[in-house]
Structure formats: C-alpha cells, structure tokens
Amino acid sequence: xxxxxxxxxxxxxxxxxxxxxxxxxxxxxxxxxxxxxxxxxxxxxxxxxxxxxxxxxxxxxxxxxxxxxxxxxxxxxxxxxxxxxxxxxxxxxxxxxxxxxxxxxxxxxxxxxxxxxxxxxxxxxxxxxxxxxxxxxxxxxxxxxxxxxxxxxxxxxxxxxxxxxxxxxxxxxxxxxxxxxxxxxxxxxxxxxxxxxxxxxxxxxxxxxxxxxxxxxxxxxxxxxxxxxxxxxxxxxxxxxxxxxxxxxxxxxxxxxxxxxxxxxxxxxxxxxxxxxxxxxxxxxxxxxxxxxxxxxxxxxxxxxxxxxxxxxxxxxxxxxxxxxxxxxxxxxxxxxxxxxxxxxxxxxxxxxxxxxxxxxxxxxxxxxxxxxxxxxxxxxxxxxxxxxxxxxx
Length: 394
Fold this sequence. Notes:
By secondary structure, this protein is mostly beta strands. It contains 4 helices and 28 strands.
C-alpha cells in the first residue's frame, strides 16, 4: 500500500506541475492585455491626401488638398523632384491644408502630412503624384532686360503670346520686390499686356526684382504658362527732358536741374507731335524711316536716320535730323517726331542729337508740352505715366 500511495503522491505532484502551467496562462493573458493597451495608444487621427498617390495628369490648381479627421494637421510638406517646397497654410481649425500657389506643369510632387488626435498621438501619411503636361501654353515677352540699368520712367512690361482670360491668376503669379521698398501695382492693357509701375517715377538706385512664376498658371481655359524666371534691373540716374513745341526747345534735366537746353523741331501742322510723358523704349544708332509704315504713304523714306530713340509704338521718335535746315529752334517741320540737329552718319558726337543719344538710356522720360495734338495714349509705347494713380490701380 505504501508503494501505491507513493505513486499517487507523484501523480498529485505531477498535477502540481499542471498548476505551474496555469501560472503561465496568467502571463499570456497579461501579455494580451498589454498588446491591447498598446493598440489603444495608436492615434485615432487620419490624414487624407488628394489626389490619390500615383495619380498622373493632375491639374496645377485646385487639385491638391490635404485634410485630417479625428484630429488636427500639424505639418504638411509638399516638394517637387528638386526639393523645392510649395508654400501653403493649415486652416485655423486644423482640419485642412491648401497650397498658396499653383503647381508647375509636368512635375512630380511628394506629400508628407502629420496629424495629432486629442491625446496628442500622431498619425502620418505620404503620397506622390505628377501634374499634367499641357497641350497649349503661353509665355510673356518682357522689358526691360535682365541685368539692365534703366531710366526712372521704365515700367516692367510683359506681353503675353495668348490672350489672358484669368488675369487675377496671372497677376498673382508675378511678384515684384524693390529695394528700397515702394508700392508697385499692375495695370492691364487689353488681355495680353500687363505693365507694373510705382505711383511716381522710380528713385535713382532702386533695385527691382521680378519673379515670373508662370509655369502651371492656367491663363485661359486649357492654356498654361511655361515660364519660371527672375528678372532684375536697376534704376539709374534721374533724367527727364521737357520738349516745348511752341518754343522749339528741349530742356534736359537731371535730378530736377537743367543740365542742357537744345533746339528742336516737332510735328508740323496736321502732323503734330503727341503731348504727354513718353518713355524711351528703344535706341537705334541708325535706322530707316518710311512713311508707308505709319500711314503717311510715300511722303518720306529716309534710309539712314541717325541717333534715333523710340517714344511710341505708333512711330514717334526723337532722332537726329541732317535735312532740316534752319527748322531747329525756329519752326516745326517734322511728321510728328522730335528732331535734333545732326549730320549724315551721326559722326560728330558733339552735335545736339548725338549728345542727347549718348546721354540717354532706355527708360528715360521725354515730356512734350504745348503741341496742338492730344495726349499720347498710355498704351502707345511704355507711356502709362499719362494715367493717374487712381486710374492705374482701379
């Protein structure tokens, strides 16, 4: 019996070992509970990005959106393939983000967005997409040239290759910074030309930087800009010249002081010179002037006009004149241009036309007074100064 009891005792002991195994089950339960606790610590916030990852042909405006549910966005970063960031803003309620500018054409972008829930737990989402490649595009041809030094009357003028039907989108994509700072506003002439200028002539020494962020701007339905360029220019010395059509004189002023007075001839009766402020937009050491090009038939065709500077698109110049005889300072004899005494070929640089040509730069102002014609149209050349600031900015 003693032996049987011993065997029974061993069996009980073995059952005791089973009791030890029960203790292991308690540990497993604890681990399962810990796993559940860990899961409960994950953020309940979710991030949504539109367009979906991998999308192609995405519109450059209005398609990119980031939002959060059950939490608030804390960080959104959008970059192109070169690492350039796209500016944007998280809404005040934290549930959405939108870009502050358009996207570029044919460009791959990556998006990284983070949101936090009420308990401060973070959730992130990543995505990428590629914008559309437009079938129709436009560019803007601008003046003055990058790196140039220009006169105090020079606007920044850009003419587009396609008529613009969304001028606000185009204008928003052009940023102008100046040093020293001055308010610069744009004005549209028709739907294909946009000029920028300050209220008054630029101050000498002002540095101007223009950012043309037009790549991806939908200027009209289905037509997108393709320029991304920065243009810089500097304002030179202040030179404004005053032509008196009755006195037949021109006073050249620098910083408001007369530095030289020259005899001129302006438009004869029936061909009177425009009144108003005109900006030199082109300098030609010699050029051909043919009446056929400005609607005057075969009245003149001079193949070697010296020292010519353009004042209007319609054909008004201030130029050297070697055929005018005694008209300079005495009477008006031209077909609308302002003439200065010169010799054929312009070889004598001391003569009035040559001197004025050599002392003038693109952007200088020539103002004509007391002519029998009306004031030049603001869009006839770079002549927006003939509009009041109120008219310019309305």
